[in-house]
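Structure request: YcxB-like protein, Marinoscillum furvescens DSM 4134.
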Amino acid sequence: MNIKTNQFSLSKNKLLQLLLMRYAKRRWGLLLTIFILGIYISTKEYHDKIDYYFLILFGLYPFLIVFQYMRWVNSKDNSLFLLPRLYEINETKITGYIDGGNESTINRNLITKSYSLRSAYFLHISKEQFLYFPFECFQSETDRKWFVDTYIKEK
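Returned structure:
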């Protein structure tokens, strides 16, 4: 079977949300440790200078991560991620067509991990590279079901 998605694009806010969600999913242990240590230090009866230093550090860390990703999303160098795109998908490969005439093909055997979250499917090519398919990009429910059976359930 060969399916074609509707053309879709990511907004800057959606891309930022996806990146922060992936960061939290990968670094949940670090974030939990910072949260627990922050609570522990803030509830101590006596505080010394190092306690205040760590409280400031633990408080600023999440804001610095968000700021870093906001800069990355708003960079002109990364505007390629925001361009409209569509995909042709078959059993052996996924071919992406990005607005402006660029085309890329990814063989199925290069996909290392696949899963679905709230409103989208993710296919990972490497630890940092992934394909994003919102549920509404598929032209029909049959196409979406075939995609899930072929790409999501098998990985």
